[in-house]
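Same chain as my last thread, 489 residues:
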Amino acid sequence: MFFCSSLFSQNGLTPLDSSMIACYPFSSNANDLSGNGNNGTVNGAVLVNDRFGNPNSAYSFNGTNQNIVVPNFNTKIIGNDVSISFWATASTYATRSALIMTPDDPANRFNVHVYYGNTLSNSQTFWDFGNISANGRLSDAPSPVPNGNTWDHWVFVSSATNGFRKYYKNGVLQLTLIGNSTFNNLPSKNLLIGGGLGVNSSFLWFGGSLDDIRIYTRVLIQNDVTKLYTTNPSCLPCPAISQATNITQPGNLLVCAGKSATLAATGNGTINWYNSPTSTVVIGTGGILQTSPLNAVGIYTFFATNSNSCATSPAVAINVTVNPTPTVLTSANPTLVCMGRSATITATGANSYSWNTGSILQSVVVFPTIGNSTYTVVGTNTSGCKASFVTQLSVKQCSDSPTGVKEKGKEILIDLYPNPNKGEFQINLGQIEENMNLEIYNSIGQQVYERKLNSYYNVINIKEQVKGIYFVKFTKGSVVLKQEKLIIE
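reply #2:
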């Protein structure tokens, strides 16, 4: 079974997946994960624990009739440089072939023997590639057979290009044989993992367990061997991982106290978010992070990494500036109002204001009534942060009646404020009358403005008019209910 790790050999130049033609991690099956499709067919071999104790992650062979067959494998060996890496442990001596190609031919052999001997303390190693009578065989002196619980890492290399064969055990070079030997990849041969019957039906079955078999058409050097022994890279290369890219909208980097920030990052892997560059506590996963409310004014820094199963990029820092919210307050004069009379409410603590009456002035004149005496203002400061404040006026029925315009026994309360003004003012109605219109005339009698009055509070803007005296008429049909002089300064 493999674990993902850095895929580059320790020389930093050649990836460990380079020129790989087969890779068998035996993770629940005998499939080739190199991407070359050299899958094996299991004949009786049994899945067992690997050297790490992972279940169903290695294959055990009984030494008599079990193997894994990869058809026509010799055609995959182009050229005469080849390397084989695998892990093995033996359950008996005389285990013979861990890998062999058949039909077997001593003049054109592909075969690896490990733990081959007559006793547990007397086992030999053979590496056959080409004609075993003409520099095609490397054999080494006896060595002990493991106890069945100890795994050994083996690497076998043959290079006709450089004229040698060699093998490594547990990361250490054991033997080098100088001399050229070539392997003919015709006619078709099957690769038998776990051995089988050799030339003249010779008994070449492997008794033990095998795992993580990798076959290359290039020479593995010492650094490669060390990497394969000390780590267990995946069969396929992991894609290069890029640093996460901050794609947060600029407006989301400025928030008001008490609000959350929405941050965004992208990458070719998985984005993880942290509160510090060294933290291991992930506070969010994915391209979007909705922070918790940021209550204190100041700068908060969040960090995003991009990762895949093999690597994690350095963290990219994203700063969020938290601005203060305004403290909006109001004062009313008077606070106890006779129904139908006016009160002035003034807001403080912000730079601009918006009232539920429609006014955007700092002060508003209102005509509260019983059941309609609550006024809300929203204040905005220079940072764009907002806060609201609600004013509740107390209203009472007074004995004296306010001055207003009477129509058929009803008093219509109208207030124009401020006057004089700079072309923007407010008209408040004590009550709404159907078909009530506002008309404004200049000093020579030309009408410059008209609109229906259909709300209690109406903001009028005629700033485009020149300074001077104007006349404001409140009409209902052909009846003039009230007329006032308006001064624009």
